[in-house]
Design a protein that fits this description.
alpha/beta
Amino acid sequence: ILHQLIDFEIDVAAIGRPPTDPRFETAFHRRLRVDVVVASDHAWADRECVTMAELNGQPMILREAESTTRQAFETAARRAGIDFRTEMEINNREAIREAVVLGLGISVGAETEFGSHRQLRWLSVSDAEMYIELNLTCLAQRRSRPGIRDFFAIASDFQLD
């Protein structure tokens, strides 16, 4: 994503971790809660929440190790003293969503990241707080361009945390 900004392929990006590179200007946008997602035919699909202990040994479909979502989950898992089973590692949210729908495992994420899907059920984790941040970033040299400046101004009106 940062390379796309540098190459002028995109003007603004929503990313988890703010870049430390001074070529970029970043603004916090919102904090998203990380929940568990299961297929609509999963044994837990009628529930509203699960505990970290229930995730122990479950087949998990996770993003790559650098993912802030995965890091939030792994931190909560360590705190809870559970071992999860990484069934698959996929670097694409849409592919994770489809793998969960197919019943290949369960995952974690922010519902707004995955988009709504009638075959997914979102469950909160009652004994852990997991969050990721969503930050808006652009090339610092382009921050004052009218469209980019306006985008940041409008986005700041919708900050949720």
